[in-house]
Design brief:
Order of helices and strands: HHHHHEEEHHHHHHHH
Strand order of the largest sheet: 1-3-2
Number of helices: 13
Radius of gyration: 24 Å
Largest sheet: 3 strands, mixed
Structural class: mainly alpha
Shape: elongated
Strand content: under 5%
């Protein structure tokens, strides 16, 4: 079996098995930050398998690519990869994977442009509903108070990020509940969750038939909220952020028999109120380290023939 084929099979194996293992794991909701890291490592491993397979397939199909790729390598390394007798599949695989890479980049650019367009629209709406004071520059204030009858709060990312909170939320949130909501939204901004959502959305929309990318997108939307909840709960307590979620969402029908699309809110509240047995720091460190090794497996598969030749 050639190395490019082995890499493709490894990528397919990770794409099928890893989401199933993560779906069965009982620690992901207890440790959302670790779960976010594991998911990123899994997707990075799949993409790395495709990139390495594309590179070696191109080197097998075309002498010009092979010469540039293995220019500093000894002659024995080139022979170890058996690239001088390419099969009829080499050029097809290389071109197909290259087109997939271009398509992925195009989907990411489209996702970012759409997000920027939505942000510009929302900023324009904010300027209409909360106009600037004389002498105030746009984006100078990170906190915007918006007159509204619906309690809400959200973080608006961008070059001049802003935290928006409505007057109804100020009236409804009591004690440290407001501080907990602000900590939740600040957690999104601190860990740049918007980029996680952009990347996962681009992969899922660009390759709707690839299950690992759809699962990646869905889990990112779910886990970033849990991670931000944990950021707030560490400072103000789990009960405080849970009550704040109830206050912000009880008028939207999310707790009724016919829930709205925000039906994940009751699950978040239940998670915050339920007793939890967190993983020990040692187990958390082991999971993080094990996840970091996942993208190293394609590199080992790709470089083992060369290392053997050098040895």
């Amino acid at each position: 079996m050639t190395v490019p084929v082995a890499l493709l099979l490894l990528g397919a194996f990770v794409a099928v098995v890893a989401p199933r293992l993560l779906a069965r794991a009982d620690w992901t909701e207890r440790e959302p930050i670790v779960a976010l890291w594991v998911w990123q490592c899994v997707v990075a491993a799949v993409l790395l398998c495709c990139a390495l397979s594309m590179t070696l397939s191109a080197a097998s199909a075309w002498q010009a690519v092979r010469g540039r790729l293995f220019a500093p390598a000894p002659h024995g390394v080139v022979e170890a990869y058996a690239l001088r007798a390419p099969g009829p599949w080499a050029a097809t695989v290389a071109v197909t994977l290259a087109l997939g890479g271009v398509w992925t980049a195009a989907m990411l650019v489209r996702e970012v442009r759409r997000a920027r367009s939505r942000r510009r629209q929302r900023r324009a709406e904010l300027l209409v509903r909360a106009p600037l004071l004389p002498g105030e520059e746009p984006g100078a204030e990170r906190l915007v108070l918006l007159e509204a009858e619906r309690p809400d709060a959200w973080w608006l990312p961008g070059p001049a990020p802003q935290l928006v909170i409505t007057t109804a939320a100020l009236r409804r949130l009591k004690g440290h509940q407001l501080d907990a909501v602000l900590a939740h939204e600040t957690g999104h901004a601190r860990w740049r969750h918007d980029w996680l959502l952009h990347c996962s959305g681009a992969l899922a929309s660009g390759f709707p038939q690839v299950g690992v990318f759809a699962s990646f997108r869905d889990q990112m939307h779910h886990l970033v909220e849990l991670a931000a909840d944990d950021v707030a709960s560490r400072r103000f307590g789990r009960l405080t952020i849970a009550l704040a979620l109830v206050e912000l969402n009880e008028d939207r029908g999310v707790f009724g028999p016919c829930p709205t699309p925000q039906a994940h809110v009751p699950l978040r509240v239940h998670r915050l109120l339920a007793p939890q047995s967190r993983l020990s720091p040692v187990h958390r460190l082991r999971l993080t380290a094990a996840a970091a090794l996942i993208p190293l497996v394609p590199l080992l598969v790709a470089f083992v023939p060369g290392l053997r030749a050098l040895g």
